[in-house]
Specification:
Residues 8-136 form the START-like domain. This protein has helices spanning 22-30, 32-35, 117-135, and strands at residues 9-18, 42-47, 50-55, 58-68, 72-77, 90-97, 104-113. By secondary structure, it is an alpha+beta fold. A hairpin with a 2-residue loop joins β2 (42-47) and β3 (50-55).
C-alpha cells in the first residue's frame, strides 16, 4: 500500500518564446511520439486518455485532464496503482501568440514537490532547448 504524498508542492510557472507556429508545436506537447522526442526517455499510450511517461526506466502514469487543440494540454499524474489522487502532481503546457510581434510563447505549469527554483528553471530551460531543436525554433 502506497503512503500518501506528504511533500510540500509548489506551482512552478515559466514561459519560453519559441519560433514555431502552434500547429507545428502542439503535437510535440500533446502526443506520445512528440513528447518522447524532447521531454523524457519514452512516452506510451496506455488506455483512453492515459499515458506512461518513462524516465530512467521508471513508469509515471498520467491522464489528460483537459485539452484545447493547438492551445493547451494538462497531464495529471496518477499514483502507483494508476488511480487519481487528491492534490496530484500535474503538468500543463499552453501556447500563447502575440498578435503584435507574431511570437509564440510556451507556458509551462509544473505542480510538483518543492525543489530549488533555479534548478527547476535550468531543468525546463534544457528541456525546451531540446524542443526548439526538434521544431527548428
Amino acid at each position: 500500500m502506497a503512503l500518501p504524498d506528504t511533500q510540500t508542492k509548489t506551482r512552478f510557472v515559466v514561459e519560453f518564446p519559441i519560433n514555431a507556429s502552434p500547429k507545428i508545436l502542439f503535437p510535440y506537447l500533446a502526443t506520445a511520439s512528440g513528447l518522447s522526442q524532447w521531454f523524457c526517455d519514452d512516452v506510451r499510450y496506455v488506455e483512453g486518455q492515459r499515458l506512461n511517461f518513462i524516465w530512467d526506466n521508471d513508469n509515471h502514469y498520467a491522464e489528460i485532464s483537459g485539452q484545447r487543440l493547438n492551445r493547451a494540454i494538462r497531464f495529471v499524474f496518477l499514483n502507483e496503482l494508476r488511480q487519481t489522487v487528491s492534490d496530484a502532481n500535474y503538468l500543463e503546457f499552453s501556447l500563447d501568440s502575440s498578435q503584435v510581434t507574431d511570437e509564440v510563447y510556451l507556458r509551462v505549469v509544473d505542480y510538483s514537490a518543492t525543489q530549488d527554483s533555479n534548478e527547476h528553471y535550468e531543468m525546463w530551460d534544457g528541456l525546451v532547448a531540446k524542443l526548439r531543436e526538434q521544431v527548428g525554433g
